[in-house]
Amino acid sequence: MTNYILITVSLIIVGLSYSTFTLLSANSRLEEQLEVNINYQRQLQEQTVTNTNQRLEFESRLAELEEELLEASYQLTSLKDTLAQAERRENPEYEALLERARREVATTARQRTGRANNRAFSMFSDPATSRKLAEDRITGNFVDYLEGLDLSSSEIDNVYQAMASFNEGRYQMLGELMDGNLTADQVASVFGPNAMVESLLDLLSPEQAAELSDYQIGVNQEAARAVYSQFLTSSGSAIYGEPLDMVMDVLLDELFSEQNNYGALAAANGSMTTAYNDKLETFVRVRDRLETDLNSDQLAQFDSFVQSQEGSTDLILEASDDGSGNLQLRNIKVSAENLPN
Prior knowledge:
71% of the residues lie in helices and 6% in strands. It has 341 residues and is mostly helical.
C-alpha cells in the first residue's frame, strides 16, 4: 500500500514538473515573439519618421526650385523691358502696353507663388499625415508635462487631444498662411505668441497654463539649439567648447524672449513680417551682449551666422524623440520676401 502511494505521488510530481516545463517553454516562446513584434513595430515607426522627413525635404526643395524659376522669370522680364526702351519713341502706345504687360507678369507671379506654396505644403493638408505629425510632436515633447498635471486620467487625455488637435490644425493651415488667405486675427490665434496655450485655457488652471507656457518655450529652445548650433559651427571654427555653449545660451534667451514674440512665427498683431523684423533686432541684442566676451574672430563667426539667417524665416522648427532616444529634427525655411503679411 505504501509503495502504491509513493508511486502515485511520484507520478503526480512528474506530471506537475512536465506541466511546469511546458508552461515555461510556452511563456519563453511568447516573450521571444513579443520582443520580435516590438522590434518590428519600432522599425516601422522609425521608417515612418524617416519617410516623413524625406518627403518634407523633397517638398521644400521643390518649392525652392519654383522660387528660382520665378526669379528667372522676373529677370527675363526686366531684360525685355530694357531692350524695349529703344522702341519707346517709335510706339506712342508703349507706356500703356508696358503697364499692361507688368500687370500680367505680376498676376502670373502670384499664381506661380501660390502653386509653389500649395505643392510645398500639400502633405500637411492630408489629415492622416498632419495628425501623425501632431501626435508625434506631443508624445515626443510634452509627456512629462502631461504626466505632472494634477488631473484625472480622462482630463489629462482631454488636454492631450486638445494639444494634438491644435497642432494638427496648425500644420493644415500652413498652405493657407503662405498663400495669404488668413486674416491677421486668424494668424495670431494659430501662429502667434503662446497660441497653443491660449487654446487650452478652458482645460487648464492659470497655474497649469503658465507652466505649459514655460515648458513649451523649453521644448522650442531645445529644437532651436539643435538646429542653430549646426548653422553656427558651419559658419567658422573660432567658436567651440564653452564659448559655443555661452553663445547658444544667450542666443536662445533672446530668441524666445517677449521682445521676439517668444519665438513665434507671427507677432501678436498677426504679422509674419513684424516677427521677422523682431528677429533681426534680436540678433543685434545678442551681439551686443556677446561683444565683451568674444574675440574678433569669434565675433566674425557670429556675424557670418547672422548673415546666413537673414532673408529667411523658420516656418517649421521642431525636434522630437522618435521613441528610441534619437532626436528627429524638422526645419523648413521660407524666404522673407515671400511672407504674406
